[in-house]
Amino acid sequence: MDLKLTDKLFIVGGATSGLGRAIIEQLVAEGAKVIAVARTQQKLEALKKIHAGIEILTGDLSEENVLEEILNKIGNRLLTGAVVNSGGPPAMPTMKTQLSDWDNAYKTVMRWKIALTQALLPKMMAAGYGRLLYIESVSTKQPVENLVLSNAMRLAVTGYVKTLSQEIGGCGVTLNILAPGYHATQRMESLFIKNSELKGVSETKIRKEFSDQTSVKQIGRPEDFASLAAWLLSTHSRYINGQTITVDGGLVKGTMG
């Protein structure tokens, strides 16, 4: 299928690893232009060596000055879509959290996404077209053990995106969420290590426990996720709006997963 993304401009956050990088590789393969945003300059430079046509921007998406840099980078160009993606809060059980952890989780998971949306959406609405794709977590459908901060804050993002998609429907801009399950990413490796420490068992056993929770009995690959992301960023997805779609290998057991 031709996704018709040639020369279309996208912003992708969390660009240098995991799901963000996989989405960039998919978009580049489709001929799209990409502004890659991440916190580590060295990793961005390495990514640009592989994909010479991309543009890079170093910074933390939760910082307001980075938002301004993004807008300057776009300039007067037509922005087709944005992948709103970044890392999550640290893993911990509920009773281990402090109020400061919740304050930080709001900043790292939700606040900057609202700010970025408010900055980009008027440009898309004026153009009559746009795709905003938020990368959250399978925890929007069922809680993930020892990730209470993510479980709570990502549900808040879901409520925000759903409400906004209803309010601006009909303007040519769609907002959707992809909720990844267990994929082979650095974030997932950190979760394996944390659970290994908490339970006092080997990381190998933890990996098997996580794999066995899915119906396909395996951890996903980032490219499995990126293929659907690219489709949702294309014109073909015009009738999908305000949805939270899990890519989880059958992890969610509920019928609404």
TrEMBL record:
Short name of any one Pfam family annotated for the protein: adh_short_C2
Listed transmembrane segments: none
Stored InterPro entries: NAD(P)-bd_dom_sf, SDR, SDR_fam
Protein origin, superkingdom: Bacteria
Xref: SUPFAM superfamilies: NAD(P)-binding Rossmann-fold domains
PANTHER family the UniProt entry points to: 3-OXOACYL-(ACYL-CARRIER-PROTEIN) REDUCTASE, NADPH-DEPENDENT REDUCTASE BACG
Similarity-based family: Belongs to the short-chain dehydrogenases/reductases (SDR) family.
Name of this chain's protein: SDR family oxidoreductase
Classification lineage: Bacteria, Pseudomonadati, Bacteroidota, Flavobacteriia, Flavobacteriales
